[in-house]
Write a structure and sequence with these properties.
This is DAGKc domain-containing protein. One of its GO terms (molecular function) is kinase activity. This protein is an alpha+beta fold. The chain has two domains: 110 residues, Probable inorganic polyphosphate/atp-NAD kinase, domain 1 (Rossmann fold), CATH 3.40.50; 156 residues, Sandwich (Tumour Suppressor Smad4). Helix content is 28%, strand content 35%. Strands 6-5-18-15-8-9 form a six-stranded antiparallel sheet. The longest helix is centred in the N-terminal third of the chain and has 14 residues. The protein starts with a strand and ends in a 12-residue tail after the last strand. About 2% of the residues have low confidence.
């Protein structure tokens, strides 16, 4: 039976222009009947999903994590599954779901893989896949240019982080979780749903995208030298071993700040504090490789 799919490709993503025609040819050969809509801007994505959703069986999105973030709410509204073509710089959701970065292989996952229902994060009415954060990461998002991402790839995140760290100032916040209020002075609070973010850093050492919890960490640095062990620990999600990094986990979190702080979800600034975070368990179907059927645990 032919599958009808809406194909949305961000041609401005790192590999979007080059990979678009290749993806169309491969998906056609794999038996998909495609509705292809040119995308002028990411703001169009929700409208396109809602407009064409009743006519298709799934939505295939080619782009990076920001492009995927742009369609997640409309996919939930239309109750449509997602196929992913990783065409961005970091591709953290694809990395979490073990989706191959090669276009032929990713197309085959959509055609022959298994539909896996993953958790989503939710903050102030906006769903997200990977992580929502405030503080340092927002400064990085605002400074990180598309040109730098195209030129340097994942290294652009690290280079920009080093530039803005010296300029970032701590802020006061209080976190409410499990009936307890915790006051912090921090340069960043991150609330993770998936495993990877920011070009391959792990939210927590044991985080998965189907563990039905949110993982929070707060960077409470006091001295400049604390940056270096942090940079060593973050990629493995082992930052919780450092005494100046607070880690928490739960299903429902509230964050309040003295001055309103912007919140970035999957690399897009979408809301601000005060903020309420929730995990929405097993809420969105995504096509993943068959060898990811039993678990998305990174250690297996």
């Amino acid at each position: 039976m032919t599958k009808r799919a809406l194909l949305l490709v961000n041609r401005h993503s790192r590999r979007g222009q080059h990979s678009f025609a290749q993806a169309v040819d491969i998906l056609n050969d794999l038996g998909f009947e495609l509705i292809i809509v040119p995308i002028q801007s990411s703001e169009q994505l929700p409208q396109l999903v809602r407009q064409h959703g009743p006519k298709v069986d799934l939505v295939i999105v080619g782009g990076g994590d920001g492009t995927l973030n742009g369609v997640v709410d409309s996919l939930m509204d239309m109750n449509l599954p997602l196929g992913i073509l990783p065409l961005g710089t970091a591709n953290d959701l694809a990395r979490t779901l073990k989706i191959p970065f090669g276009i032929p292989q990713a197309c085959r996952v959509i055609a022959e893989g298994q539909l896996k229902y993953i958790d989503l994060g939710w903050v102030n009415g906006k769903h997200f896949f990977n992580v929502a954060s405030l503080g340092l990461s927002v400064d990085i998002t605002e400074k990180l240019s598309k040109g730098a991402k195209r030129r340097w790839g994942v290294l652009a995140y690290a280079m920009t982080a080093l530039q803005v760290m010296s300029q970032t100032r701590p802020f006061h916040a209080h976190i409410v979780m499990n009936g307890e209020r915790i006051d912090v002075k921090t340069i960043q609070i991150a609330v993770g749903n998936g495993r990877f973010y920011g070009g391959g850093m792990a939210v927590a050492e044991d985080a998965t995208i189907d563990d039905q919890r949110l993982d929070l960490y707060s960077l409470e640095l006091q001295y400049w030298w604390q940056i270096f062990p942090l940079l060593w620990r973050l990629p493995q999600g082992q930052h919780g071993y450092l005494p100046w990094v607070r880690t928490l986990e739960g299903e429902y979190i509230e964050i309040y700040t003295r001055k309103s702080q912007d919140i970035n979800t999957d690399g897009e600034i979408v809301t601000a504090t005060p903020a309420v975070f929730r995990v929405i368990p097993q809420s969105l179907g995504v096509f993943v490789p068959r060898n990811s059927l039993i678990t998305l645990d990174p250690n297996i």
